[in-house]
Amino acid sequence: MDASTETSIAIRNLSLSFGLLDVLKDLNLEVGQGEFLVLLGSSGCGKSTLLNCIAGLLDVTGGQIFIGGRNVTWEEPSKRGIGMVFQSYALYPQMTVKGNLSFGLKNAGVPKAEIEERVSRAAKVLQIEPLLDRKPAALSGGQRQRAAIGRALVRDANVFLFDEPLSNLDAKLRADLRVEIKQLHQKLSNTMIYVTHDQIEAMTLADRIAIMRGGQILQLASPNEIYNRPANKYVARFIGSPS
Ligand code: ADP
Ligand code: MG
């Protein structure tokens, strides 16, 4: 079966094992073009592993991954058209913010003028223009995470993967950046898969939520539907529905 054009990402019968540990088990998932999908589940259920498979940072044990209808299962990460933001900022400490944003583009051979343009566009969207000449050590946690998002933005990717990008930040900053990420998505209208273990984050950000447990997806539906019609007791308890 191949993916329709409205489908941005299609995952078919995906499995991944680390030695004897089966982490992803025959997992199927379709994400629509421009959709904001939240993967919600408790620690250890396989969320990061799934994102890393989509990004091509891990080799799958079985199954296929399609992006924009193309089978990318064995394609190298840089060819997949993906921007990824990790939980820890993973900025290069010895480089300025501008250096961090430009680095991947330089390596990819993007012409200098275009790098300048993309970096200043991303910096404007994220309101980090005044910070471009600073090094990460001279930034607050929120500013660092904005810079990390910037590094994904400059890639002009059609698909963004966010792995718990706000979980190292305090509550106030988390709430602010949540709003910004939502606005960013409305502005760019690219496909997002956003991983979190935080129910509030999932409810406020998602077009649809996929509830994950033990390497499988238990339910995939809108926040409203999941809250009002949880598929089972585990989902109800996890999402905090009245039952
Ligand atoms: P989550 O992101 O939902 O917290 P992970 O995808 O990081 O979960 O991990 C899922 C399971 O796989 C956990 O049991 C974890 O210990 C295990 N795991 C993750 N990465 C590795 C690895 N590189 N080698 C062995 N086991 C791993
Ligand atoms: Mg994780």
From TrEMBL:
Residues 9-239 form the ABC transporter domain. Belongs to the ABC transporter superfamily. The keyword Electron transport does not apply. GO terms for molecular function: ATP binding. The chain holds residues 1 to 243 of 365 of the full protein. This is ABC transporter ATP-binding protein. Keywords: ATP-binding, Cell inner membrane, Cell membrane, Membrane, Nucleotide-binding, Transport.
